[in-house]
Amino acid sequence: MKRTKKQQRKIDEAINLILLLVASASLIITKNFFVTGVVVGMAIIVMMVIASYKRKQAKERLRNSRIEEIDSMDGIQFEYYLKELYLSRGYGVEVTSASGDYGADLVLKKDGKKIVAQAKRYSKDVGIKAVQEVMGAKSYYKADEAWVVTNSYFTKAARELAQTGNVRLVDRDELIDFILELNSAAVKPAEQVKNINFETIISNHGTCSKCGSPMVLKKGKRGEFLGCSSFPKCRYTKNVG
Q1: Sequence-distant contacts of 103-107: CB under 8 A, at least 24 apart
Q2: What sign has the CA pseudo-torsion 166, 170, 173, 175?
Q3: What's the pLDDT tens digit per position in 71-113?
Q4: Cα–Cα distance between 5 and 8 in angstroms, integer?
Q5: Using one digit for the tens of pLDDT, what is the confidence trace for 49-76?
Q6: Are 210 and 74 in contact (CB under 8 A)?
Q7: With a threshold of 0.70, does the pTM exceed it?
Q8: In the prediction, which pLDDT does 201 show?
Q9: Beta-ladder partners of 154
Q10: Kind of pairing between the strands at 145-150 and 113-120
């Protein structure tokens, strides 16, 4: 789990407080500085062993999730990966058109509820814009819920707006949890995505001259344009026509 500097400071302060309490209790009980030093040293060793074990568990969890496959996907592949992921979880899923998606990459349905979701395959934290767009999509599609799903994490501003706007944020940690659940059930969404022929589902707008990813039709302040599907990793654009 990604920690902020503030969270790390709190953890450090808690560890220091625990060591202080251990030292104080030992000194009161034994009235011996040497014994107290030994006790504190043992407490530090125990904490280091626990921290090492947790780091090892976290690394094993990442290996089992095969999250690195998702990190190497482009934006469109990630959308179809999430489609397979949520189909495996019992949702009805539709991937919206690359042009005119009105802020939603996926439309999910389950138990009578409609959910719009943005898929953000990012190498950096997802910002407030994604939350704003999915809030607009919720209104346009008349959906019951709005989600933003990413292989990364969210900025503080994005988390605050999501809380105010009742938008569910699914970050890297929760995504890995979903993947591990499905891996244990022998369902491999990544394998399903590999079998998809993207040429049959992507509009014929050619490929990016910089990275080779499919170009998709997008809308901006100045009208429609073609942008690389690997955005923000690749920011190549060109005019329509």
Answers
A1: 103/133, 103/134, 103/135, 103/136, 103/137, 103/140, 104/134, 104/137, 104/140, 104/141, 104/143, 105/79, 106/79, 106/82, 107/141, 107/143
A2: positive
A3: 888 888 888 888 888 888 889 998 886 545 688 999 999 999 9
A4: 5
A5: 888 887 777 666 655 557 787 888 888 8
A6: no
A7: no
A8: 44
A9: 126
A10: parallel
Residues 184 and 148: their CA atoms lie apart, in Å, by 25
Q: In this structure, what token pair is assigned to residue 164?
A: 């105010």
In whole angstroms, give the CA distance from residue 124 to residue 133. 18
